[in-house]
Amino acid sequence: MKVQTQTAQKSSFLASIVRRQIFIPIAALLILAIFNFIVDPSFFKITLGHNSEGDPILSGNIISIIDYGSELAILAIGMTLVTAASRGQDISVGAAIAISGSVVLRVLCGTNSHPDTLQAPIIVAFLISCLVAMAFGAFNGTLVSVFKIQPMVATLILFTAGRSIAAWINNNELPVVSDRTFTYFGGYIPGIPIPTPFFIAIACFILTWLALKFTNLGLYVQSVGINEKTSRLNGLNPALIKFVTYVILGLCVAIAGFIKVSRLSTINYSVVAKDIEMDAILAVALGGNSLSGGKFNISASILGAYVIQFLTTTLYKFQVQSDALPAYKAVVVIALVVLSAPIVREKLAALFKKLRSPAKAESKN
Amino acid sequence: MPKTDMAVGKPRRHLLKGISDTNLLMSITIVVFILMYVFAIFGLGQGFLKAQTFFNMLNANAALIILACGMTLVMITGGIDISLGGMAALVSMCSAVFLDMHSGSVFGAIMISLGIGLAFGLVQGFLVAYLDIQPFIVTLAGMFFARGMTTIVNTNPFNVQNEAFVKLKETRIIIPGMGSINKRGDYIDAYIEIGVVIALICVAALFVFLKWTKTGRSFYAVGGNKQSALMLGVNVKRTTFLAYLMCGILGGIGGFVYFMHVGSGSASHATGAEMNAIASSIIGGTMLTGGVGNIIGTFFGVLSLALIQNIVSSVGLDQAWWTGITNASMLCIFLIVQSIIIARRKKANLAATKPTAAKGVKT
Known about the structure:
The structure holds two protein chains of two kinds.
Chain A: H1 2-19, H2 23-39, E1 46-50, E2 56-60, H3 61-86, H4 93-109, H5 122-145, H6 151-169, H7 196-214, H8 217-226, H9 228-233, H10 238-264, H11 276-286, H12 298-317, H13 325-340, H14 342-364
Antiparallel strand pairs in A: 1-2
Chain B: H1 21-44, H2 46-49, H3 51-76, H4 84-101, H5 106-130, H6 135-153, E1 158-159, H7 163-170, E2 173-181, E3 187-192, H8 194-212, H9 214-224, H10 226-232, H11 236-262, E4 264-265, H12 273-283, H13 295-315, H14 320-352
Antiparallel strand pairs in B: 1-4, 2-3
Helix pairs in contact in B: 1-13, 3-8, 3-11, 3-12, 3-13, 4-5, 4-6, 4-11, 5-6, 5-11, 8-9, 8-11, 9-10, 9-11, 12-13, 12-14, 13-14
């Protein structure tokens, strides 16, 4: 009898871990890590080297994961809030990143596309790009909250027009920034061996955590996402809350765009952040958040973003071409989504019960 | 004796009251299209008077028409399918490889295209209808898979040299009597490609299917309200599955028509086709929430997008970014107009059903 209660307690503890939402990306991360460890333990090697300027930098697969996954993580924060409140996805983030990056370059380079010095302080360029990105976020938010258009359809507009607008801002030229301090944000600050985007992602996560802890943002967003009519009857303003989530996503877009432009010190309108909206939505789904709104977990989404980047890096290591990458991502996504579908979970649980009960019946006999 | 209080009073005789949501939105699209064309003829002159301009719009967009029809079917049931562009690219590449590298027949290539479309439709339909997974995620994975497989099948783009296929591609169906005189004074017949005939057949068949068959009506029922459809006795799961299956098959057909139009296989074919299909469906009056939609509207939606691109380039704004901006503005205007009209009709319906017991029944 004692043994039975002990095993019952153990299984309920395990069950309580498995049931938590953040378990899904952690499980995916563990599977990927174990797979890589078995195939090639040197995957996790980190070396301390020097870059071309003579500064010490860390390099290795893990470093590249946390480096390139940071933009996706920042976007995942905004996308989680938007998905949770408006029960739909914003597919225009790639185009919005193009616009925001284009604005940064326009402010820094002025009308000359290859200037020798910065035309304005970097912080001014960043703030202006934040305003522009938030304005476009407000545009999307208005369409969704005032005109009650479906989020995916409303953001289709900016998706179609965004890169064209980005090209128009700079008159279809490709300005190049030649200032070295600009590259610090997308690369390495001299003396710090860990890439800067990772610190920016951590800063965004801390800001979001503080906002969720000390304001009612999380509560209101979840409430509006779960049941809009009830929220309105309870005194919330669903339109305003949805609008605010889109503006927050605009801010995330501005930060991600700034990092992306700082990596290359230039921009390529049709290629920058291509398909990042799909990756962002995947990150939200991988974090166990429901794509039809409601409860959300930001940490799970951020973990999901890094899992996607982990998967990408693993596939690159196996020398999969970048064009063929999406096929593998698709298989992983389908496997994950099928396993976490409620119907499949019910069937698996019933199957486990069946497997366990004949064993119990035997032990009783 | 006062009028019985079941009567709502004198109903406001509104011209558009008897028309359904679907038909109203479709009529707006057709009217706007005709207005734009008339504007183009009078404002931009010569080129638009030629019938061939219209036929060229059909020629270039035959594949998009078929893909948009598939998208409309799925959107009517309340779902979405963003794998259509990837499917078209995969179908083109597989057919191209089959024709050139395995010296197959054109018939074999058609079978392969239909097979790929069917496979996508089966898997996506099963996952969405029976496992109850969000259609966006399933079809997003489908799109990723298709685009990735296109590169895996063959890395480099290439033109197809197979003779039978090239002959098929170059076939022109001449429309008598609508030709034009070119600069040298020769009379050139107006022509359409085979793909246009296939597209028109698809549009007609799907129109009949949606309007006059029970299964077609059940699409609207499932899209309008799943619970109500379930209680009506409609097999919601099977209907949703059928919608995705048909969309997959249409994706295969559309992919082959696209292949016939471009004559090559490439991983960058049909990029953005699914978004164009969604935009065309919306402009044609299909709502993403489901239950509202019309194939004829989608047909005119595709033509409207093509026409506006033609107008924009004729006016002289031919820089690359104007296409994106005009398409987006058109979509934006249509979305806002649709949402306003639907909101007002809902309000009018609600007001019309208010009981008048409170109004002046003096006892």
